[in-house]
Amino acid sequence: MAKRHEEWAAEHGRVYGDADEKQRRFEIFSDNVRYIDSFNMERKYNYKLGINQFADMTNEEFVATHTGSRPRNGPRSMTEFQYARVSDLPSSIDWRITGAVTDVKNQGSCGSCWAFSAIAAVEGIVQIKTGQLISLSEQELVDCDYTDNGCNWGWVDKTFDFIARFGGVSSEAEYPFTGAKDNCNITKLSQNKAASIGGYEYVPSNDETMLMKAVANQPVSVNIDGSGSPFQHYSGGIFDGPCNTTMNHYVTVVGYGEDERGTKYWIAKNSWGATWGENGYIRFKKDVEAKEGVCGLAMYPSYPTF
């Protein structure tokens, strides 16, 4: 196990402050590897776990540093849902293939999943409407969006509203991500917008059919429970729990489909880099019995309007 840890640390560039810290991380790594191996040997689920960049972190550390939303209190206010009467939906769609999704990004230990999810959804609708795929700035939102909370937490509907009210958002090239909240660059906030939106709409809660109607037309931000050890170590397959509906993380649904065994799934873009999951993505089981969807993904979906 010690050699396994050394090789993993070299691969992920992990350097420890002293021998005590290295020993502590080795023990956590060992516990996680044993858990991963045991989970995979059971073959109880339709997905597998793997030794990723979070393998030397406890689950508590992982949740504290790599999520970034909070549960909602009570129902949301209603908005128009422009796709309510859409019919003849495609049996599958993948906005990555159509060119509406940028490369997977990495929020690091800045709890800004809200910004990454919102930006992925904005990048998608802008490309769909204009034909231009532009990587947009999460950092501008982390620094300047006073309605959210930087590297602590946020809600994407407030983010969409902020982007609309301030006339758009800068490009990533113009305002690159640093992994920490800094003072807002007022000059960049007030000019040189790379893309803009008109506002946002909610998908009706607890209805995967309505979510499908929205995703068939554009990428959609969803709030989920991303706190469990299986989610931390997910490496591939169709994820169907265990998880609950205590929201603490945002991802962006960029498609849906069905595997060779007839299991339907959602395709979600995460913001933990390409070494997590399926090259940075996760597939959630679709059309489950629980109306909230797997990990609550159908509870609070929203998307930007153009």
TrEMBL record:
The Gene Ontology terms for molecular function here are: cysteine-type peptidase activity
Q: Which GO terms describe its biological process?
A: proteolysis
Name the SMART domains on file. Answer: Inhibitor_I29, Pept_C1
Question: Sorted alphabetically, which keywords does the UniProt record give?
Answer: Disulfide bond, Hydrolase, Protease, Signal, Thiol protease
Q: Please, which domain of life does this record's source organism belong to?
A: Eukaryota
Q: Which residues form the Cathepsin propeptide inhibitor domain?
A: 5-62
Q: Supply the Gene3D superfamilies for this chain.
A: Cysteine proteinases
Q: Which CDD domains match?
A: Peptidase_C1A
User: Can the keyword Protease be found in this entry's annotation?
Assistant: yes
Indicate yes or no for the key word Membrane.
no
Q: Which InterPro entries match?
A: Papain-like_cys_pep_sf, Pept_asp_AS, Pept_cys_AS, Peptidase_C1A, Peptidase_C1A_C, Peptidase_C1A_papain-like, Prot_inhib_I29
Instruction: Provide the Peptidase C1A papain C-terminal domain boundaries.
Output: 89-305
Q: Which PANTHER family match?
A: CYSTEINE PROTEASE FAMILY C1-RELATED
**Belongs to which family?**
Belongs to the peptidase C1 family.
- By what name is this protein known? Ervatamin-B-like
UniProt organism field: Ananas comosus
Classification from the root reads: Eukaryota, Viridiplantae, Streptophyta, Embryophyta, Tracheophyta
